[in-house]
């Protein structure tokens, strides 16, 4: 889940009034769990998808009209969902439709079938691979909150490790302001940007494709989306692969508060030893402890004197965002962060092109559109505690123990603590009535951490878990032939491993060319 790419002592913060959670309508949970929405109006059920070339001609795209609220389909304006497909390359081997989705929540799924087909000739021959931009995202009807400048301020203003009364107050003020922007600018859309509403869009899409069942591949947040879809529409799924798993059996709150631990683990147990091993290239220290000290010295220097790189002012928070983003994939991410650290230590000796590149990379820690959808889903899907004192105290501990991502915890939780009440039903994922589900997760995944995947696996009856012994986020088509073989065998041939198993990880990368 590309979050993450996300979320002191202070009596004043604890006194702030927060919005109380509302009770769900009677029967909503059980009805939604069975997919028991009202009948689909004919204007949606009988629409035709007008496929046209898109995304550089590699795919076909169309616009699908959906109800704003599937529980009241005649109320409110329709939404437009952009959908895409890559038709099977071998009609003689075609076995059906493979639906996929993007992570985040907030990332675009529209272009992804082309990459999936390119990465597996077997998959491309066997399936029409289809995807979409989820409601609230990209080319579909999008949710609008704050502008880019306000979103940048979450990660560029001050230092998120600062636990002073003034700093914590500012965090809550920004959170409330962001939520008010969302309510003011979204045109009443916020209550309907949830995973439950999105899976009903998916099932309409399946119907308009003219198939009774789809297979499914979903990485990161799309594992959550896929688990909900299979639970609500079990008769419409055939083979399901969930890669790098959010714990879809629990709440967003319980999942997201676990991330600081896993980002810190990836940083300290994988990145810093790699950085130390390559000290001859990056000059950050010959031991992990020395490399960590170099990072902390740079961060402290930015705290006192933010660095202006070609018009982008680099603060400690931006450095932490760059570091967390780099943890997702070692091959590419580690070299990128190491090069950034070297340049920020000695900016005057870097070339103009290198400075411009770093300035561009670090200018906007998170896109405003992504930020809006991310919180619409994570704050609206499942309940959150509304006690500001609880979050002030808990985030202080997260900052102390796991500072890399723990420092941002209050930013994220303060938004969800102030989010408007949601009527999203509780969806209990159990695996009952589903075909076997293939799951993959790495042991040091920073975003969808292994402990979360194990909980989801245990709660999903009949699933098989492929454990990959490395730390990358996203296993399929990420350079691991073992993981790829398991996924291709299941999706193409229906071969599921008899029990949970493991794959060796991909070796850590060689250092990038660095001057």
Descriptive overview:
The chain has 22 helices and twelve strands. The protein has a domain of 257 residues: 3-Layer(aba) Sandwich (Rossmann fold). It has 515 residues and is of the alpha/beta class. The strands form two sheets. Strands 1-2-3-5-4-6-7-10-11-12 form a ten-stranded mixed sheet, sandwiched between helices.
Key attributes of the depicted protein:
515 residues, 13% strand, disordered N terminus, single chain, globular, alpha/beta, Rossmann fold
Number of strands: 12
Helical proportion, percent range: 40-55%
**Helix segment count?**
22
Mean pLDDT over the residues: 92
In the CATH hierarchy, the architecture of the domain at 28-141 and 191-254 and 426-504 is 3-Layer(aba) Sandwich
- CATH homologous superfamily caption of the domain at 28-141 and 191-254 and 426-504: Alpha/Beta hydrolase fold, catalytic domain
Strand content: 5-15%
Major beta-sheet overview: 10 strands, mixed
Question: What is the third-level CATH name, the topology of the domain at 28-141 and 191-254 and 426-504?
Answer: Rossmann fold
Q: How far apart are the termini? A: 33 Å
Strand order within the widest sheet?
A: 1-2-3-5-4-6-7-10-11-12
The 3D shape can be described as: globular
Question: What gyration radius follows from the Cα positions, in whole Å?
Answer: 23 Å
CATH class of the domain at 28-141 and 191-254 and 426-504: Alpha Beta
Structural class, from helix and strand content?
Answer: alpha/beta
* Low-confidence parts: 3-35
């Amino acid at each position: 889940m590309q979050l993450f790419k996300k979320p002191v002592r202070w009596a004043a913060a604890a006194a702030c009034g927060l919005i109380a959670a509302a009770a769900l309508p009677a029967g909503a949970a059980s009805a939604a769990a069975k997919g028991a929405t009202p009948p689909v109006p004919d204007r949606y059920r009988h629409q035709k998808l007008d496929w046209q070339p898109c995304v550089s001609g590699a795919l076909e795209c169309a616009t699908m009209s959906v109800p704003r609220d599937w529980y009241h389909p005649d109320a409110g304006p329709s939404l437009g969902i952009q959908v895409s497909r890559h038709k099977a390359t071998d009609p003689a081997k075609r076995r059906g439709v493979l639906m996929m989705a993007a992570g985040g929540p907030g990332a675009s799924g529209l272009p992804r079938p082309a990459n999936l087909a390119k990465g597996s000739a077997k998959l491309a021959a066997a399936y029409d691979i289809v995807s979409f931009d989820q409601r609230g995202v990209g080319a579909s009807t999008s949710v609008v909150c704050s502008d880019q400048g306000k979103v940048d301020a979450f990660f560029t203003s001050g230092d998120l490790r600062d636990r002073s009364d003034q700093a914590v107050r500012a965090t809550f003020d920004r959170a409330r302001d962001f939520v008010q922007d969302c309510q003011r600018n979204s045109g009443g859309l916020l209550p309907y940007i949830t995973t439950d509403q999105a899976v009903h869009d998916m099932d309409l899409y399946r119907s308009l494709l003219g198939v009774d069942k789809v297979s499914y591949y979903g990485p990161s947040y799309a594992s959550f989306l896929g688990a909900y879809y299979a639970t609500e529409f079990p008769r419409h799924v055939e083979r399901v692969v969930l890669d790098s798993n959010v714990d879809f059996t629990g709440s967003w709150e319980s999942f997201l508060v676990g991330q600081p631990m896993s980002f810190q683990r990836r940083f300290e147990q994988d990145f810093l030893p790699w950085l130390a091993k390559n000290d001859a290239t990056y000059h950050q220290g010959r031991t992990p402890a020395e490399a960590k000290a170099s990072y902390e010295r740079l961060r402290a220097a930015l705290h006192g004197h933010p660095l202006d790189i070609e018009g982008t002012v680099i603060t400690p928070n931006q450095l932490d965002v760059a570091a967390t983003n780099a943890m997702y994939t070692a091959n590419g991410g580690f070299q990128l962060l190491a090069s950034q650290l070297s340049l920020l230590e000695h900016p005057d000796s870097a070339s103009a092109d290198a400075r411009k590149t770093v300035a561009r990379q670090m200018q906007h820690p998170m896109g405003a559109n992504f930020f809006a959808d991310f919180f619409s889903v994570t704050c609206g899907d499942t309940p959150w505690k509304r006690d500001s004192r609880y979050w002030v105290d808990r985030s202080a501990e997260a900052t102390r123990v796991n500072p890399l991502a723990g420092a941002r915890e209050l930013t994220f939780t303060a938004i969800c603590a102030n989010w408007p009440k949601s009527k999203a039903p509780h969806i209990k994922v159990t695996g009952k009535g589903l075909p076997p589900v293939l799951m993959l997760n790495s042991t040091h995944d920073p975003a969808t951490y292994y402990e979360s995947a194990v909980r989801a696996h245990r709660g999903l009856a009949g699933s098989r878990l492929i454990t990959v012994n490395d730390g990358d986020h996203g296993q399929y088509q990420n350079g691991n032939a073992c993981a790829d073989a398991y996924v291709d065998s299941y999706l193409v041939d229906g071969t599921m491993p008899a029990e949970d198993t493991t794959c060796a990880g991909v070796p850590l990368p060689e250092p990038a060319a660095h001057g």
